């Protein structure tokens, strides 16, 4: 008796339907960063950048020919404990990747350690962590993890860029180290003393203070200490409210200081604070700044972002972090975390600020860094004002990721399969 093929069309239709259903599955990304408290404005900025990228990726078909990305939002409250609760909630809701970085290095480190434990105990349900802003070199050094990828230049890379610039700035003579009392603040101070001291052996470090993060309401006593020490320059890792209040206190005291910082200019309110203080020069380093010449794709993205969100675009690396993940998923041909992580290693990506590469040995992204100063609009070096002021950004120096790359103590432990 011959076999019947009467059900072949039905079977084919079922297979097509199953394939279509699979293509429409979502890949869930959990955003865990501060959305309340003193740094809520920073968290909201990072969330909007992330949302913009994910919506654009989905509008262009998602990943793997039809799988859409879904963003889950969680408030870390700048707390390791709250981040752990958010991580568990993200796992319960089926998250496959975590995007974080704005909670501070100590909080993000604890989050990565928890993901490491989860992944070890739950094979087949692993998570990937993409860190866009916590820049402690230990995270891609001794504490490196196969599951963690850092999409921002780390503290050592940023300080090397600033040290290279300070080397060519002879009027800087006496430096005070004023930083937040947590992992990153201590690292920023240590690398400042080490790398700036190496670049400028003649510089004097005249004082060093750590203060509670997010809790100081008046920096006048700290500014008084800086002034008493005779400093002309402050190396500070402060960000958010801690940066703007520091600028205000110095302005109120009539103290004309130079500040060297890692990313303050990309935080809402900083340019306004500089313009209101009227004194002081804030120099910072990032992958891009508004108005930077020679990066038309970043400018075009900034205009499109502003048109859609009504907000200023400040951090390309945060916007392209989901794009890196998407590129790795497509390269892997799978959403399996182990395969995606392997695909992200040594992944080169043509970002809006130029080519970037995820270094395989420690999962540190190599990306350009621009040293720039918040300064009055002069029609030449600074052409456009920011935050409703007549202050914008002046490019001082540009370095490639390879120029700033540091050695690493990472001994990456990778899954067997």
UniProtKB/TrEMBL annotation:
Gene3D superfamilies: 3.40.50.2300. It holds the Pfam family Peripla_BP_6. CDD domains: PBP1_SBP-like. Belongs to the leucine-binding protein family. Keywords: Amino-acid transport, Signal, Transport. Residues 1-23 form the signal peptide. This is ABC-type branched-subunit amino acid transport system substrate-binding protein. Residues 26-365 form the Leucine-binding protein domain. It comes from Variovorax soli. Transmembrane segments: none annotated. The keyword Protease does not apply. It comes from the Bacteria.
